């Protein structure tokens, strides 16, 4: 029992709690301590009763003046909590509401908001009070004799019983006297003698004497029958407090049994922690490494100092030698020394030929000496001003010398991260992070705790994860590693895999493209349409009919079975682009007919569409979604599919306007996904970034079906590249797993 004393301590006074109240953060603190903390924070001093265990609260130790005052009862504490700690004399009712009180909770390490009523909203922790009382009774901690409150002094006896209804302590004789048999008092609840009688049940802090009979799961608070009717709890999950009691008790019992049944595991972890503490205290290897690094730095500095000293000494010797030679040269110019004496003797020669033969070298030497005298300068700089060290950068490096830190948590690049045929995860390190040698990527299916995998020692800042399950949400995170170990994990990112296998295809260039309007990229995955000469030539008829030109593109595969998914992106500035699927035969028929939208087949007033040949119950041969000018048009139901599947429309329709009551418009998603179920004859369009379904409709799958795209006016689209091909240096060989379209084209 003594081992749980740590759980009974007040976080403020570090003593066993007295009259504990529960803060909004669920920590318990003494009422007196909470009041003192609020006063220190600048809030008014609330009126508090004397401490239950203090001598002032004991009847036998009160002074005569105190004896004339009634003994403070525990219900006064409840009235104090209901009155609010911000109440003080002189306060006017018409003043504005008091400021929100903040209580600095020590266990939380932050300020807890108490609300405008302060301690009035904090209910007493009766359960903790009962535990403390049992604890004191068991270990006799600070036990003080509780005297009978009805014996006349000085013959007062020690109390043996307490009455929760009378809120008083009695000796045996007084208890029998005041609780005679056969009277209602005989049914009162007997408790241990105490000086702190608490209420039997918790009551609402706002509605006096209202029992807390309900529990709001949304707000996580107890409610009375009046609080339950408030508008703030409308729509919340409210249960009877007995149900919440049983649920919470079962959870705690289950958690307690789990911990008690895994005591060996706890002891093993304690042993590991103690070993870790021992290793931390020893830290021999870290000290040796630090000493070794410092010795290397000092050895390198000593070696560098020796080299620089040698360079300085060598320069000094060269300069000294040069200056000494210059001194000797100047000394030879003195009157009775060297060159001057030899020249004087040379002038005594009278033979012209001999003189000329011998005097030419002397003449040269004298001319050089005269020039050196006239242009005198030191042959070497004695100041050594060029031998100065700039160690500012090195000093900064030494100042910043510290133990290396593990990399910070990487930041996931959500713009480049995607789920297609594989998962492609891309990330970067924060600017103030230390470099990472490699990364570790963890991934798992959401909702599957044991499953998952890990990619170790990823050297780059991106990773490809394959062998995934379709139509599943994967949770991914990454962390860096260097010499200091692994850093923190990044925030988790959720990626939704496609609902069907990804179909890889290219745009078919064999269908007679209009070179002046439609251009394909070299890889045949990107197409751009530019309004050409045909639109200009039809400008003279623009007032009488619609003369936009439709350019059709199809994929180079035909689907005859199974479910398939692909994605593409449409340039937001495109005028009108339609993405979908259609019967191969119908697409060929459409392609070989004139493409002018003003022809009778496509005249909006002709009453003829691509599905007029079929019965009203048969699925349409085409299924498209219209995009343009940064918007996407979604029909409200499959009944409006024919109006969107054919190309009788000549412009973009606003779903919010009167011209299109059956559809709505949404912002164009970055990527559009298409999923075709051939057996069911259904096509579903997705926001490929979040895999959120946009629209679903029927399509005729009685014959091979092709992915199809149509441009009306200027625009561009690009097929989503396979993640498996991102790191390839060259275009991989096509591998078609479904029936290829074999058609004789003109």
UniProtKB/TrEMBL annotation:
The keyword Metal-binding applies. InterPro entries: B30.2/SPRY, B30.2/SPRY_sf, ConA-like_dom_sf, COS_domain, E3_ligase_FN3/SPRY, FN3_dom, FN3_sf, Ig-like_fold. Residues 347-404 form the COS domain. GO terms for cellular component: axon cytoplasm; main axon. One of its GO terms (biological process) is axonogenesis. GO terms for molecular function: zinc ion binding. PANTHER family: E3 UBIQUITIN-PROTEIN LIGASE TRIM36-RELATED (PTHR24099), TRIPARTITE MOTIF-CONTAINING PROTEIN 46 (PTHR24099:SF20). This is Tripartite motif containing 46b. It comes from Cyprinus carpio. The lineage of its organism: Eukaryota, Metazoa, Chordata, Craniata, Vertebrata.
């Amino acid at each position: 029992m003594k081992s749980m004393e740590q759980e009974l301590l007040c976080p403020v006074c570090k003593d066993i709690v007295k009259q504990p109240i529960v803060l909004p953060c669920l920590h318990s603190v003494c009422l007196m301590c909470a009041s003192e903390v609020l006063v220190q924070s600048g809030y008014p001093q609330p009126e508090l009763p004397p401490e239950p265990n203090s001598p002032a609260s004991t009847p036998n130790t009160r002074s005569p003046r105190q004896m004339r005052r009634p003994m403070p009862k525990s219900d006064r504490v409840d009235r104090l909590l209901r009155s609010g700690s911000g109440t003080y004399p002189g306060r006017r009712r018409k003043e504005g509401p008091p400021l929100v009180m903040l209580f600095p909770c020590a266990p939380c390490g932050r300020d807890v908001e108490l609300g405008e009523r302060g301690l009035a909203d904090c209910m007493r922790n009766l359960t903790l009070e009962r535990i403390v009382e049992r604890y004191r009774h068991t270990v006799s901690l600070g036990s003080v004799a509780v005297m009978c409150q009805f014996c006349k002094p000085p013959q007062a006896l020690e109390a043996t019983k307490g009455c929760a209804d009378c809120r008083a302590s009695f000796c045996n004789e007084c208890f029998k006297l005041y609780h005679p048999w056969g009277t209602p008092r005989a049914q009162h609840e007997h408790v241990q003698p105490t000086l702190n009688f608490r209420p039997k049940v918790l009551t609402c802090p706002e509605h006096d004497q209202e029992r807390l009979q309900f529990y709001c799961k949304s707000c996580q608070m107890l409610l009375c029958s009046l609080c339950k009717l408030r508008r703030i709890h409308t729509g919340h999950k409210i249960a009877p407090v007995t149900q919440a009691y049983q649920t919470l008790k079962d959870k705690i019992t289950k958690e307690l049994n789990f911990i008690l049944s895994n005591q060996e595991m706890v002891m093993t972890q304690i042993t590991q922690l103690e070993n870790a503490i021992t290793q931390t205290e020893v830290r021999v290897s870290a000290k040796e490494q630090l000493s070794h690094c410092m010795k290397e730095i000092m050895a390198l500095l000593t070696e560098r100092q020796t080299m620089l000293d040698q360079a300085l000494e060598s320069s000094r010797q060269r300069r000294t030698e040069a200056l000494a030679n210059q001194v000797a040269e100047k000394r030879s110019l003195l009157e009775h020394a060297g060159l001057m004496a030899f020249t004087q003797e040379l002038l005594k020669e009278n033979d012209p030929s001999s003189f000329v033969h011998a005097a030419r070298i002397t003449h040269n030497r004298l001319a050089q000496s005269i020039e050196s005298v006239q242009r005198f300068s030191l042959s070497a700089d004695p100041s050594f001003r060029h031998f100065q060290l700039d160690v500012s950068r090195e000093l900064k490096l030494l100042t910043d010398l510290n133990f290396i830190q593990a990399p910070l948590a990487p930041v996931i690049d959500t713009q480049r991260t995607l789920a297609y045929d594989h998962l492609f995860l891309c990330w970067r390190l924060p600017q103030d992070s230390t470099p990472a040698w490699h990364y570790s990527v963890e991934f798992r299916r959401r909702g599957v705790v044991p499953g998952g995998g890990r990619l170790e020692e990823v050297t780059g800042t991106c990773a490809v994860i394959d062998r995934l399950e379709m139509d599943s949400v994967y949770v991914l995170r990454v962390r860096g590693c260097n010499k200091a170990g692994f850093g923190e994990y990044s925030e988790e990112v959720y990626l939704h895999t496609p609902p069907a296998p990804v179909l890889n295809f290219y745009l078919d260039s064999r269908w007679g493209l209009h070179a002046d309007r439609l251009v394909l990229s070299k890889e045949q995955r990107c197409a751009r349409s530019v309004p050409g000469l045909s639109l200009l030539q039809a400008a003279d008829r623009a007032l009488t009919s619609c003369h936009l030109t439709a350019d059709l593109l199809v994929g180079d595969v035909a689907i005859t079975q199974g479910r398939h998914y692909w994605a593409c992106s449409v340039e937001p500035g495109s005028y009108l682009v339609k993405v979908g699927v259609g019967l191969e035969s119908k697409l060929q028929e459409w392609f070989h007919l004139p493409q002018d939208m003003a022809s009778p087949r496509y005249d909006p007033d002709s009453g003829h569409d691509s599905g007029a040949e079929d019965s009203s119950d048969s699925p349409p041969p085409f299924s498209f979604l219209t995009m343009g000018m940064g918007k996407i048009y979604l029909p409200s139901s499959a009944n409006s599919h024919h109006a969107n599947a054919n190309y009788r429309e000549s412009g973009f329709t606003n779903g919010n306007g009167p011209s299109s009551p059956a559809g709505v418009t949404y912002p164009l998603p970055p990527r559009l996904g298409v999923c075709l179920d051939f057996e069911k004859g259904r096509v579903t369009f997705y926001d490929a970034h979040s895999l959120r379904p946009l629209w679903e409709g029927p399509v005729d799958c009685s014959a091979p079906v092709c992915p199809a795209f149509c441009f009306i006016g200027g625009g561009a689209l690009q097929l989503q590249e396979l993640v498996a091909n991102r790191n390839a240096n060259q275009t991989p060989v096509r591998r078609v797993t479904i029936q290829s379209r074999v058609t004789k084209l003109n």
